[in-house]
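Input sequence (314 aa), recorded before submission:
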Amino acid sequence: MPDPQPNSARSNTFIIWSFSTAMLTLGLIVFGAVVRVTESGLGCGNDWPLCNGTLFPPLDNITAWIEWLHRLFAVLIGLFGLATLWLARREYGRGDRRVLRLTILAALLFLLQSGLGAIVVFLDLPPTFVTLHLGVAMLLVGALLAATVIAWYRPRNPYQSDAVTQLARINAAFALLIVLTGALVRGSGATLACTDWPQCSPGAWLPIDQGPLALVNMLHRLSVAAMALTLLGLLRQVFRSRQESLTRRIALGSGIVYILQIGLGAMFVFSAAEASWGAAHVGLAAATWSLLVVLVVIEHVNDRDYARGKKTDA
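Predicted structure, token format:
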């Protein structure tokens, strides 16, 4: 990340570790999508943390290796997370403790995510727990990015919360909802319940008479369309009322990534759920959420610094 303003109280080491852990977690989310679209979720059977009763899967079992590598990736993130937590305790244990609290929250979310991963395996991939597992992973990324931004970002000209702040929060919530409904579509087997795009089938926007799976699929798509409108409103407000180039770039980046995500969702349908399109679609959805979380935290930091400035002036 570029340095917007020098600040001696900032720990560059913590920023590097926390940001790296967040990016690794994003990678794990994409890897988890690969596990789902290749139907490797039970590649190691119902064993956890072992794989079919052994430490290493057999060399000729591809699905087992995909699932096993996913678990190994999670262990790596756990190690990075421990280092990040130690740095947060050392650098932010006194004074402004927001960074430390967010890092502790991330550690708790990691433990919860690991527990949900085990439950998913033990219960044969129930859609509800698969969705929760992904949702907690998204919150983990959000907590790590929030800690990173608060540790790194120093606004030059703080401003008060306004329409941009509210729209950023709405779009971040929308992005998380879309990720969760997308996971529910996949977990419930509704991926190809709608064979056309953007309609479910020719002439059907709300396929009430085509069964619950088609309805779940279409509700996900309508949520995507609704967020496109709110995101357009956010971009309009950002370029009208924000002069800082960083804020503009992040907002524009979220819009571009979101458009690409929609396009990959269409390709996923047209390709009859080809695995690479599905994994990329999830990855861009997670990236959209991440950019919006960063924007929300930047808005929070500006509002907080603005309020502090007012108190000082008074």
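Checked by second reader. The chain has two domains: 11-152, 156-314.
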